[in-house]
Design a protein that fits this description.
By secondary structure, the protein is low in regular secondary structure. The chain has one domain. It has one helix at about 120-125, and strands at about 30-35, 100-105, 110-115. Strands 1-2-3 form a three-stranded antiparallel beta sheet, with no helix packed on it. Strand 2 (about 100-105) and strand 3 (about 110-115) form a beta hairpin. The two termini are about 20 Å apart.
């Protein structure tokens, strides 16, 4: 989901139709297919029960109607380090690699580490399959 606009990426939610390579008109090498999603936020802890005080860990679906379980969004911060009370950050691309990098997989099969200082407009453009954006070096 680029900038909160649903169903514009390479993978869409269950029940919302399908995509094929012909529909990825922005180019297979310029469209994100998947990316890392680490959930070990230091401020996202169990507050009660036998795991009280421990870091919550999560999961991500390839596509799901439940927004926090869909691991593909560029809405909000890229590679946030804490939730700061904003649980929508659970669905952002995120990793704990040294240097602030997140590994992304593109539709043509190549992967690359992307620095968390990437311009958000470029990140949003990489997340759409047919937005008409021209993407240069990043």
């Amino acid at each position: 989901i680029a900038s909160g606009k649903p169903l514009t990426g390479a993978i869409v939610n269950v029940g919302s139709g399908s995509t094929d390579s012909a529909s990825i008109t922005d180019g297979m090498s310029d469209t994100i297919l998947a990316g890392e999603q680490a959930w070990n936020f230091p401020d996202y802890l169990f507050s009660s029960g036998p795991c009280s005080g421990q870091t919550r860990w999560g999961f991500g679906y390839w596509a799901s109607p439940y927004p926090l379980a869909t691991g593909f969004t560029t809405k909000g911060l890229f590679n946030p380090k804490k939730t700061d009370g904003d649980l929508s950050r659970l669905s952002n691309f995120r990793s704990d690699h040294i240097g602030g990098m997140v590994n992304l997989l593109f539709c043509d099969g190549h992967s690359r580490f992307v620095n968390d200082s990437i311009d958000h407009g470029i990140l949003d453009a990489l997340a759409t399959r047919a937005g008409g954006e021209t993407i240069g070096e990043f």
